[in-house]
Specification:
By secondary structure, the chain is of the alpha/beta class. It has three domains: 2-178, Rossmann fold (3-Layer(aba) Sandwich); 185-288, 6-phosphogluconate dehydrogenase C-terminal like domain (6-phosphogluconate dehydrogenase C-terminal fold), CATH 1.10.3660; 294-369, VC0802-like (2-Layer Sandwich), CATH 3.30.2130. Helices cover 45% and strands 16% of the residues. The protein contains 14 helices and twelve strands. Helix 7 (180-203) packs across helix 11 and helix 11 packs antiparallel against helix 12 (271-288). The longest helix is centred in the middle third of the chain and has 24 residues, at 180-203. The chain is globular and about 65 Å long. This is Prephenate dehydrogenase. Keywords: Oxidoreductase. One of its GO terms (molecular function) is prephenate dehydrogenase (NAD+) activity.
Length: 372
């Protein structure tokens, strides 16, 4: 999408100068995406080194005296978000100001308590990111297909709302309107608590024997992937959204205690059912998560053994294309000590049989399918 627009196939909805305050991962990624669309991006950052890096990588130009931005995006850490929003509103009274903070209620409350005129402020949050931060990790495509929450209120002008939603659409994201309270409760459940759970589980590995960790497969890697996130940022995020996170953690603690009680005596009446119900609720919950591009459509998986040699994965994709089988999703698992990997490929149910027959005829080994 970004490449098509960069080539002039589609015009950007965003016009004028966009000022981005904070040239870290999100700010620089927004800058890259807008710059590809031909939008004038002026970057500002408290760190001269971070700013130089973002400019050198092409996320935009340095801010300059006389800039008259139509839109300002505040992409700074949560503990200074309210301060920067207040400063930008005062410095550029005609500009629409939005932000990318992962907590929405706390900065809004702080600004209201200070008596700041918020008529031109619209809080927002792109649900996108990477485990690594900084301008060097920025990518123009990280917003594609991701939700972008926009928090409007009764004072928000329709034209100003259109500017923020246009920004999200230009970056390939899907605007979703929520109140700040709804947003914070939602991200507590789907983002903040998962981060803590992943970190707590990965923390158990620190004292584990090496031979235990040598048995780790893709499941535990998937479960703990986000545990590599930066502690400094998460201390701020979790502190700013503490109560919604605590509410989910308290409920999760009850569930964990219930399972632990059942497993203390697995043969006691009702114990096995309690465990089975826990796993079944997990099945039901996963089934409710949106699939590719936010669709409710479900896919089936086939697992293909792939030799760990150059070109094999490309060959697999090419032959699936010849079979008219679209790869909806892909997950790779490498077997420790083995010279092959397992490619778990998601396809539409109607394509499973065709894919299996066609790949086996071409010499591929199918380890399993979800129909097995």
């Amino acid at each position: 999408m970004a490449d098509a627009r960069a080539a002039g196939a589609l015009a950007a909805r965003t016009s004028g100068t966009v000022r981005i305050v904070g040239a870290g991962l999100l700010g620089s990624s927004i800058g890259h995406a807008l710059s590809r669309l031909g939008v004038d991006v002026a970057l500002a950052d408290a760190s001269p080194a971070q700013l130089r890096l973002a400019v050198d990588y092409g996320a935009g130009r340095r801010e300059a005296d006389g800039d008259d931005p139509a839109l300002i995006v505040v992409a700074v850490p949560p503990d200074v978000t309210a301060d920067v929003i207040q400063r930008e509103l005062a410095a550029y009274p005609n500009a629409v100001v939005t932000d990318t903070a992962s907590v929405k209620l706390e900065p809004l409350t702080a600004l209201r308590e200070r008596g700041v005129d918020l008529a031109k402020y619209i809080g927002s949050h792109p649900l996108a990111g990477r485990e690594r931060g900084g301008a060097i990790s920025a990518r123009a495509d990280i917003f594609i297909g991701r939700p972008w929450v926009v928090c409007r209120d009764e004072e928000t002008a329709s034209a100003d709302l259109a500017i923020v939603e246009g920004l999200a659409l230009d970056l390939g994201a899907t605007p979703v309107e929520m109140s700040p309270d709804e947003h914070d409760r939602a991200v507590a459940l789907v983002s903040h608590v998962p981060q803590l759970v992943a970190s707590l589980l990965a923390g158990r590995f620190t004292g584990a024997p090496d031979e235990f960790l040598g048995l780790a497969g893709q499941g535990v890697r998937d479960t703990t992937r986000i545990a590599a996130s930066a502690p400094e940022l998460w201390v701020q995020i979790l502190g700013a959204n503490a109560q919604p996170v605590v509410d989910v953690l308290d409920a999760l603690a009850v569930d964990l205690a219930s399972v632990a009680d059942a497993l203390r005596d697995p043969d006691a009446p009702g114990s096995r059912r309690a465990v089975a119900d826990t796993i079944r609720r997990g099945n039901d919950g996963v089934g409710r998560l949106p699939g590719k591009h936010g669709q409710k459509r479900r896919f089936e998986q086939l697992v293909v053994m792939v030799d760990d040699t150059a070109g094999q994965l490309g060959r697999l994709f090419g032959e699936l294309g010849e079979l008219d089988v679209n790869v909806e999703d892909l997950r790779l698992e490498h077997s420790p000590g083995a010279q092959f990997g397992l490619a778990e490929i998601s396809v539409v149910p109607s394509a499973v049989e065709r894919a299996v027959r066609g790949l086996e005829a071409r010499g591929w080994k199918i380890a399993s399918t979800t129909n097995d």
